[in-house]
Design brief:
Layout lengths: L1 H28 L9 E6 L6 H11 L6 E6 L7 H6 L1 H11 L6 E4 L9 H14 L4 E5 L15 H26 L5 E4 L3 H11 L26 H16 L18 H11 L8
Parallel strand pairs: 1-2, 1-3, 3-4, 4-5
Length: 283
Amino acid sequence: MKTRVHTSIIVLCAVLLSLPISSAYTAEKNAATDAKGHNCLFIGHSFFIPVAPVFKDFAQKAGIDDHSQQTVFSGGASGAPGSLWQNPQKRTRIQGVLNTGKVDLLGMTYYNRSNSSLGDYRQWIDYALKQNPQTQFFIGLAWGRIVNKERKRRDLKEYTASGHAYHEATHRSIVLKLRELYPDNRILCCYYGMASGELRKRFNAGELKKTKQLVGQASSVYRDGMGHAGEILKSVSALVWLSTIYDIEPSEVDLQLKDDAEDPIPIATAVIANEAKHNAGSL
């Protein structure tokens, strides 16, 4: 009889001791799924919008089941905030989505000073806030073309330096001022375009074992000579978006990679670490 009692006590203690551990493990495991999904609208050009479908896929793989999104595309300079505002058809289409009042995150990108000024962003922000005062905003800064005006490939050192300079200037003149002007709304920003230079550097160093070509195929870093994104560049960029918008780190996402696919997680982790300081101060 005593043996049975002692055995029951031992079993009960073991169960009780396991409960906090199990709960802690479950909480840690489900941390990535705690984020509430956004109803997003992304508007922009071909170095921005093609990232959005990959971002949606990764958000779902990270456990954000209530994430939804729409996109409005316009190529090149016509995809900048100012150009979209000036285009009657695109503007009407975008405003039609915003008019539902259901969009709670509006994502925009940048092209140049003439069509991506502080005032250009403010027009869209003010309109969106009239439809939904709780709207958050995301400004995604893309990479630049990989060729110069003479159609020659840009030197990697110069390319990287100019990208960082553009990022710093835009962050200072646009993002920080928007955060001052709209203190009650979250203004997110990330330079996901840093992924372009990082991938070029790693390719040149022979560190991308499954990427056979820099340019020319969907499996390359760039699918064409201008610099439109191949699958790996879109994947790295989407992971940077995921970190910025949902605070989910690349290592938390089960990407279910194919055997011949380059792993974007270490590249995205490096990009996020390098540019994280620029998200300081966002609500």
